[in-house]
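Researcher: Hi, I'm a grad student and pretty new to this. My advisor asked me to get structures for two proteins we've been looking at. I'm not sure of the right format, so I'll just paste the first sequence and hope you can take it from there.
Model: That works fine. Here's the first sequence with its structure tokens right after it:
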Amino acid sequence: MFFGITLCLLGVGSTYGLNVCPYLNKSISSTSNAPVLIPGFEKSGTTELFNVLNSSGCFNTGIKKELKFLNRFCVPQRMKLSKKTTFSYFRHCPKVKECSKHSDYLKCWPDASVAPPLDGTPAYSHTILLKHNKLVSAATELQYLSPSSSSIWLLRNPVERTVSSYYFFTNRNGNLKCTLERKVQQEIEYLQGNHFLTQVLLKPPKETTAKSMAIAWARLRKNFRSYGYKKYSKYCPATPEIIIGSLYLPMIAHWVSSLNRGRHMFLSSEFFFTDPKYIAAGYVVPFVFQSEKTATFLITESTNTKPSISNNGKYNHNEKDEINCVLHCFFSPFSANLFLWLAFLQGLGNVEVFPSISEFGWNTARVCNCTLPIPV
């Protein structure tokens, strides 16, 4: 839709910035009150995207990047499910005294700006829980509070995201004896032992539902966290789930099906990394404001209310390692089914994918000879 449109990004020396967003007016509108979210996934470029959008002047941001407001399942009907839920959890939203309606969520953004609120919390994608045989998640909370929101997802090659996630979390938690090879083997063996649930994630749209996949994924993650994998638990704790957390499809399908009045964009992280400012201005901003025009703006490094940013670490991995091919061969059927579902979701009319699905470029057949049995 937006390919071939000329984009003008203006810069002064090494300073980038935006003074006025061309799509905003001086009056508050329903669009201004509908939050824009970056709900997933960690280690996929979400911090960079949030930085660019925050600097653009088109959005209203809170005191922190990751508000985590929807993680808390705060709507009163759900609060009774957990006696431990307290208002102390709302430290990222200091003005929130109650959590029952849209206006409470909007208190996370103390600025009175008419710009749409921006919530950059990639952990929202992993919040799917099964309580009393009912799915509870950030998506179900958002549907209750603001069903007409817009979401931007960054989808990174799951192999690269898995490796990046491993290095980030193990270095942060100090589990240095848990090698990447050991951690991968731990999760693959666990998924093999839960063949029935794992197979649900490989079913095409005609053979299953988003709810069935979300339930299967929630059970896989809950059991993995609850019981771990005893053979590896001494050196490799069950969390984080670097492979289970990179099985994007059930989380995406659940989000879209739960927010059928919302709008959803799925961007290839590799596509985004080529030129983050260009992609944000040429694709993300027009998507949010439902315009075929591209944004013409400056991006400044200095803002009056710049939120704190997390996950700045970068980790390198040798792509020729054998474990890389193990991961490529494992994820190959899951990625193929993800693309089937993305094509299906596009047909709903509220989902956009950039670039085209065929251009995601996750096929690694040229590198890996996946002759081993698929480990599921």
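Researcher: Oh nice, that was easy. Here's the second one.
Model: And its structure:
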Amino acid sequence: MARVRFSYIDAAVVLISIAPLRNVPSQRVVNRLLDDVQARLADCRRAWWTIRRTTCLENQWAMAREGRLALRSRRTRGAKQIIEAGYDPEAERLHVTFHDRTTARVGMRP
């Protein structure tokens, strides 16, 4: 089984782990899997949102600038804590509400 991570704030796709019971896939096959997820990222985001109704961004620290969101590993100067994040799959747009009640909208399309 392969576990892949993607985000609602950037186009990064990362292999978290792979634990096949037998027939370990080659690096080429793993790379193809990641390429396929990258090519269908909008579909992955839509499916996750439809099923889970979460972006997994709540309680994260982030900085919002010019329609972009940058996560921080901890509270830093200028960062705000996310209390709610919603996703509009049709517009491919993320809407974030911070602890101070300010909001940010981030588009996913290039």
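Researcher: Is there anything I should tell my advisor about the second?
Model: You could mention this: The two ends are 31 Å apart (CA to CA).
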